[in-house]
Design goal:
With 71 residues, the chain is mainly alpha-helical. Helix content is 54%, strand content 0%. Helix 1 crosses helix 2 (30-44) and helix 2 (30-44) crosses helix 3 (46-59). The longest helix has 15 residues, at 30-44. The radius of gyration is 14 Å and the shape is globular.
Length: 71
């Protein structure tokens, strides 16, 4: 059984690819996730949402480059 791994997207990114990676992981349109995140940030105050996003940038690894093949 193959497990999915949460990675930040290199292709579908606006700031750092967190929502793009979440969209790939959950098979959801990243634009929808960006809108939900924006609404949550507005409703809870700016600082908590930005802090969570910055932590996600640091914790979630960037997806590997697909053009380089392993030896």
């Amino acid at each position: 059984m193959e497990y999915k791994k949460l990675l930040r997207s290199k292709k579908d990114r606006v700031i750092a690819g967190v929502c793009g990676g979440l969209g790939i992981y959950f098979n959801v349109d990243p634009v929808l996730l960006r809108l939900i995140w924006l609404l949550l940030v507005i409703m809870t105050g700016i600082f908590p949402g930005i802090l969570v996003y910055l932590v996600a940038i640091l914790v979630v690894p960037l997806e590997p480059d697909q053009s380089v093949s392993p030896k």
